[in-house]
Amino acid sequence: MSRFKLSSGSLALAALCAALVPAAIAQTPLQPQDATAAPTKTAQSTTEAAVVRSAPLPAVRVIEPQGKKSHALVVSPNGKYVVVADADGAVRMLDFATGREERVFRGHTGPVPAVAISGDGRYVATAGSDKTARLFEAATGREIVKRDFPGDVTCVWVNMDGTRVLTCSGREILIWNPTNEPTKNLVTFTGHTAGVTSVASDARGSVIVSGGKDRTICVWEPGTGRTLHVFPAAHTADIKSIAVDPSGKFAISGSADMAVAFWDLTTKKELKRFTELREPVEAVTISPDSKRAVAASMHRVIAFDPASGSMIAEFAPYRYANTATAFQTDGRTVIVGGDADVTAAADKRGTIRIFEVPAAR
Q1: pLDDT tens digits, residue range 340-355?
Q2: I need a surface site. Which of 40, 52, 116, 345 has the fewest CB within 10 A?
Q3: How many whole angstroms from its chain centre is CA 100?
Q4: How many C-beta atoms surround the C-beta of residue 20 within 10 A?
């Protein structure tokens, strides 16, 4: 099967650098607190006790596209563009260096919760709350195909050359060919008992990992749809985001239960659990070299070291409503999307903030 690219922030990644210690760390989720307050150290939270507190790091640059809240974003394989899906239904391709809008992909009539770009950079795939998934030509913005679904489309993925699209709608995950009978399913993944909210894969597309409102994480064989493993009750609330490392050895999940959990896909065990955000986790992502991971909640964004379990940095300011995050191809720059200001009026503008992530201590 062709190599896949993730929509929700995962791009082509390098091989995993260090072996992770497969020891589960049990923690008690923290209660919601003021976003600016320092996390409370507890005996149950090993990672929190090891955190070195420092002032939140400011953004090195801010891009404000013409649109409402930035629901989802992905970086092109060459790192030149950032593709942003807006709450107003538009999908915008921005020049990363200048912030200039290169083109707009139009067609959706409602918010676009997920966006993907093919491995060769030629195609942009989108998932819409208007019950459609679409595939566009990246160079021109021309819509190639639209597929209708019975419900909202919550996830999207596209392979290297745009000949396979993966979508989630309701409890089903489907792979289909947009260029030949787009309504015919090539592979169907069934197993979730509630709506699927996020999918991810390794760099080679050898494994697919999904999470949903059933609080379960499923691991799939892409070519057949066969279930390889299920992590039942992986979280105590809806799973909102999934990321997989480049080698396919581990996955990260972020949940409305305010936790970020690491899963060993080989040993089928939980590695560790982070509770520092103290808010529902909206998005997670892993750097191309697997040395950094970032989790975004509504008002907070933190970076941590996947190998040691320690927090690397926290980013400022808190007033933004964060909904999406992805690493640049350099592995050191992270992009965070969301509202320009949560205290603004109803016509909130989308914003993208760019941060430099320090190396692990």
Answers
A1: 665 555 556 788 999 9
A2: 345
A3: 23
A4: 20
